[in-house]
Amino acid sequence: MTEGIAIIDVWDVETFDSELRGDLDAHADVIRDYMLTSRHSRRRTTR
User: For 16, which DSSP code?
Assistant: First the structure.
């Protein structure tokens, strides 16, 4: 079933292929800002 298909572990960046790593690196600032915004939003809605 998974023959020829690379499986990634979302918690282990070493399992990501070079194209995905490149995309994540290129957009690291956007991803970081999203995560910070998401955390701030959750804190406000849970209080």
Answer: S
pLDDT digits over 4-32, tens only?
787 888 889 889 999 999 999 999 999 99
Query: How far, in Å, CA of 20 to CA of 28, rounded?
Result: 12
Nearest to 14 by CA among 4, 6, 5: 6
Distance between CA 4 and CA 36 in Å, rounded?
A: 37
Residues 6 or more apart whose CB falls under 8 angstroms from that of 8 comprise: 15, 16, 17, 20
Choose between 42 and 26: higher pLDDT.
26
